[in-house]
Design brief:
The protein is built from 12 helices and 14 strands. The chain is of the alpha+beta class.
């Protein structure tokens, strides 16, 4: 449970962080809250030779109203999302899901950018962001580029970020009101989700995503298509496991996860008032 030796660098700005990651390449990893990276380092599942600490890069900790969307700095903590008056009013599903991540200690240190970049299919926030849609901003040596959320998660713990890029901003559509819900089934209150479902209406369209039903966070495309075709929430929820590849582990078999996906999707749609 002891990490391999590594060098430590602290970045004072996003530009300095990108320069450091470009200098050391795929041997380096960003360190923000550290709740995903450090456990993997202790198990030597991740063995970076350089850690670039971006935890004190102050220009990436914001939640701003940009008229037609909300912009969130990648270093905004889960706690800041949970308590943001702007999010509670204009994007309440994200504030709610942030409140379900870990415990208060985790939420005060963990960041939304770290959660998304880690791309864990069992994480809460990636599924919420995927359900909302929008885009992510990546900064690298050649400047910024915009990646659609639907294209960001590419594989198990893999994302569209290049080795020399850093996630700097999340841009999400506004989704105010009560037409949303998040269902999370786990063994204990602070565990990872065995299965989770996020459902939200964005500009009149119902969008649904799944937690831990594949190697990446997934949109429940069959459910969305059924609802768009006039199916009831009960009928649409029966399609929740279509197109998924649920894992098997000590907590659940793929068949049990498929059952949970159907049940939780129905509950989420009904609680959101989507019939």
């Amino acid at each position: 449970m002891i990490p391999a030796a590594f060098d430590y660098k602290r970045a004072g700005s996003s530009e300095e962080a990108v320069a450091l990651i470009a200098e050391y390449g795929d041997e380096a990893k960003f360190l923000a809250g550290g709740h995903s990276l450090l456990p993997m380092m202790k198990l030597r599942l991740a063995v970076p030779t350089v850690l670039v600490d971006i935890g004190r890069v102050g220009d990436l900790s914001y939640i701003d109203d940009r008229d037609d969307h909300i912009a969130i700095g990648a270093l905004a903590t889960h706690r800041s999302l949970e308590t943001s008056e702007l999010l509670i009013a204009e994007c309440p599903i994200l504030a709610h899901v942030a409140s379900k991540v870990g415990d208060p200690q985790v939420r005060h240190r963990g960041t939304i950018g770290g959660s998304l970049a880690h791309s864990d299919p069992a994480s809460d926030l990636p599924a919420a962001v995927l359900a909302l849609g929008g885009s992510l901003i990546a900064q690298g040596p050649n400047g910024e580029r915009e990646v659609q959320v639907s294209d960001f998660f590419t594989g198990y713990f893999e994302s569209a970020l290049s080795d020399d890029e850093m996630l700097t901003e999340i841009r999400l559509p506004k989704a105010p009101g009560d037409s949303w819900n998040y269902q999370k089934f786990n063994r204990r209150a602070q565990d990872w989700a065995i299965v989770g479902v996020a459902a939200v209406q964005v500009q009149g369209t119902t969008q649904v995503s799944l937690v831990n039903m594949g190697s990446t966070p997934l949109r429940a495309a069959a459910v969305e298509a059924a609802l768009a075709g006039g199916a009831s929430s009960v009928e649409a929820a029966e399609q929740a496991a279509e197109g998924t590849d649920a894992p098997t582990d000590l907590n659940a078999s793929p068949e049990y996860r498929a059952h949970l996906a159907r049940v939780l999707t129905r509950r989420a749609l009904e609680a959101a008032g989507i019939s």
